[in-house]
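Chapter summary example.
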Amino acid sequence: MSTDAGTDEPRYEVWVNDKIHAWDKDTISVAELRELAGLPADCPMSAVDLVAQQEVPLPEDAVHSVPPRDAGKPLVKRTHFRQLT
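The structure predicted for these 85 residues follows.
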């Protein structure tokens, strides 16, 4: 059984516009993605699935599940969020 006690590592991390951000919830909305990245409220966003190698535009009401980090292990980069250009 794993525990978060005694670690300073974030429970969740989100990868937005090539930068890793600490996150404290198991989901993240499009508005929250923008806020993390410092983007305008009307900036279109996409999710890049690195396993399937597909980019999908995110609807405004999209909410993405964020998998927890395993303590002491590196972030597994499966989804990268970015602004659409």
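To summarize the output: Strands lie at 12-16, 19-23, 27-29, 45-49, 54-57, 63-65, 79-83.
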